[in-house]
Amino acid sequence: MQDVIESICFSEEEISKIVSRLGEKITKDYDGLDPIVIGLLKGCVPFMTDLVRKIDTEITLGYMKVSSYSGTESTGTIKIDGSIPDIKGRHVIIVDDILDTGRTLNAIKNLFKDSGALSVEICVLLDKPEGRKVNITPKYVGGLVPNAFVVGYGLDYNEHYRNLPFIGVLKKEIYS
User: Fold this and answer.
1) What is the number of other CB atoms lying within 10 angstroms of the CB of residue 131?
2) Catalytic pick from 96, 97, 100, 127?
3) 83 pLDDT exceeds 80?
4) Do the domain assignments include residue 84?
5) Coil, helix or strand at residue 14
6) What CA–CA distance (Å, rounded) separates 92 from 17?
7) CB of 99 within 8 A of CB of 128?
């Protein structure tokens, strides 16, 4: 499968260090607060699985199936499939694989604020500032990626390549 990758942005070892750093920071910030960590499916799964094992304080987990992409393009429409976790009176940490346009994370953050969360913060493995369409800044960022289509470690193209242990730029001929 590596023949579909133009270049590697983050190796497996680099991802591991990023996850440890983020877990330590979240532990420090939320020690004793029992936050609910809510992952946005499906892309968050590898990242969130590793991240929560690095958080050394009491937490609870939740998930939401949210989508806004078709192929390589953001549709601009956020679709929530299923129920919304009960977050009233809780500190919430939203976990996602990548912050690109910001539309999805902004919508979910506002939804949680309006639903009575004590606080809502965002933790992303990757940030792609050049793709931003709305003004949103995550509290926890693993690393920056170029304005290219990246896959691996949960990130996909049409549900493929999520299982790559690294994050890389997908060759254009694969999706064009």
Assistant:
1) 16
2) 100
3) no
4) yes
5) helix
6) 23
7) yes
What tokens does 52 get?
A: 């929560």
Pairing type for strands 5-10 and 167-170 reads antiparallel
151 close to 170: Cβ distance less than 8 angstroms: yes
Enclosing domain of residue 34: 11-146
Q: What is the mean pLDDT of residues 129-148?
A: 95
Classify residue 175: in a domain, yes or no: no
Let me know if 3 is a catalytic residue.
no
- Do the domain assignments include residue 118? yes
Domain CATH code at residue 109: 3.40.50.2020
Q: Could you tell me the pLDDT band of residue 76, with boundaries at 50, 70 and 90?
A: low
Q: Counting every residue, how long is the chain?
A: 176
The model carries a pTM of 0.92
Quickly list DSSP for 53-96: TT--S--EEEEEEEEEEETTEEEEEEEEESPPP--TTSEEEEEE
Q: Which of 82, 156, 46 is nearest to 168 (CA)?
A: 156
Number of domains in the chain: 1
